[in-house]
Amino acid sequence: MSxxxxxxxxxxxxxxxxxxxQFGDIQPLVDDLRRMLLEGHxxxxxxxxxxxxxxxxxxxxxxARGVNSGTDALVIAMRALGIGRGDSVVTQANTFHATVxxxxxxxxxxxxxxxxxxxxxxxxxxxxxRAGGDIRAVIPVHLFGKPAPLxxxxxxxxxxxxxxxxxxxxxxxxxxxxxxVGSFGTAGCFSFHPSKNxxxxxxxxxxxxxxxxxxxxxxxxxxxxxxxxxxxLVVGLNSKLDALQAxxxxxxxxxxxxxxxxxxxxxGWYRSALASVPVSFQAEAKDEVHVYHLxxxxxxxxxxxxxxxxxxxxxxxxxYPTPIHLQPAFQKWGWREGEFPVAESLARELLxxxxxxxxxxxxxxxxxxxxxxxxxxxxxxxNGA
Length: 385
Ligand SMILES: Cc1ncc(COP(=O)(O)O)c(C=O)c1O
Hints:
CATH architecture of the largest domain: 3-Layer(aba) Sandwich
Number of strands: 15
Number of helices: 14
CATH class of the largest domain: Alpha Beta
CATH superfamily of the largest domain: Type I PLP-dependent aspartate aminotransferase-like (Major domain)
Bound molecules: pyridoxal-5'-phosphate
Strand order of the largest sheet: 1-9-8-5-4-2-3
Strand content: 5-15%
Largest sheet: 7 strands, mixed
């Protein structure tokens, strides 16, 4: 195991994403970036359009528009769809802060539903009971890489005239019955933060859509509302995908499917190695492809297990320890403890084990053996042995 431990230890020191592995033979990319720097290809250049076309094709959509970040993708999607003051937007209580912050930044009011115990995903029954009134849109989150229950959400949204904006920040390439996430709703919003399954070398994001009019509006909103130079039709953001980032993303995109397959293999190894351990996993449906941005295990003794694994040099982390409704930033909405009990218990019980496309079975076995050792020790203590 000596070859494995240092790699995991180095994870804890901050190099968990193994960018060497992601770039491979980097020289042709460096030559290209050098050319772009010297020729001044910086803003909305051909490289941006090339990546937008490739990413739209990858998602099975007609259009993609690159922006500064996944957060901006959500804000711009809402604003370009005319969502703002006086509107409400539903999302789930167990998401990353950005989903709900974006609703507020667009000027709308966030409304939450709880998660489901087995899927850690959007509770569709609660959506049905909240739909209507001033609710203009719903934002399902493909959390941890697992597709949200889009078909049911689309049915309810359709029946109540609500738009569906997918938060696909963690789920590039995930699919339901062969259709990629991002392509189901009016808009699919992606983050290319360096930690994501497809990551830039800094912040970046994109919106995908099949609606040409909406794609034009996104273009205006990401460019300070401009149609032509000095003609500003609306108040927008300055949030354009950087050309150098677009080139880097274009370099990596052809490898995304292979990396996602490798993540699924790693998740399979964990599931078998931990089958006898008292932890549960995020349920997978037969017709979906989960791309395991994060591999989560669920246990009531999460905090003790986290401490134990970290003591062994394993970079286990908690995503996310505080559900949205209990975050200080959202106090103004008057949500109370106990209001979204599943989101609260997921916040207490989920633990991410390391997952990267380049992990080998030895690393997974090593980490799993430590998880098993933790539960063996606990069992012995509880039984006074
Ligand atoms: C679910 C979710 N939504 C939105 C975002 C925001 O993306 P970004 O960090 O690129 O702004 C993230 C980023 O981690 C995310 O995980």
